[in-house]
Amino acid sequence: MRIVIAEDDPLLREGVALLLRAESLDVVATTDRPDAFLAAVEEHRPDVAIVDVRMPPTHTDEGIVAAVEARRRRPGLAVLVLSAYVEQAFATELLSGGANRLGYMLKERVGRVEQFLDALHRVADGGTAIDPEVVAQLLTRTREDSALERLSPREREVLAMMAEGLGNTTIAERLVVTDGAVHKHIRKIFAKLDLAPTDRVDRRVTAVLRYLDDTRRD
Length: 218
Description:
It comes from Streptomyces armeniacus. By secondary structure, the chain is α/β, with parallel strands linked by helices.
């Protein structure tokens, strides 16, 4: 796995690089600016980019903008965004083009090495990894008149785990239920969100994006 890291905090940047190299992963470039990040993506053609949300010169959304641009230039690029705080507008902006190969994690999660590496491998393998704290905070901001109000508490719990990027088996393990029970909950979620079966739409991704978009508009 070839990785580019874009993070303006030198301690975090080099710490993540050392951690990944210790795991025998190939960190091909590290940088502290969005323009240098895009240049590194063009030059090294990495499999995964780890990108800070806030970067120079204004420390607002440069990292997100650069990540979106990198995905436009290289559609197969997996991106794991790191943020110090929960910023749902940035999460949904990044996910608006599709949730595959995308992750959004709080920086504090890097210290929990197993969880951080799990998220990295998940996005590299084509999945989604949304920090559970991000999902938890978004869940509390859902509007009362939302379509999500149709969901039962357990169905909302399952959808929140889907938003983290967890698969059915992992969800079943967390809830201490069978895979069949999880499948039943997900079918009900699709029905209540009016997501009919179709070959052209990934209903799982659509449900998660609707969940994130609805909380963003609150």
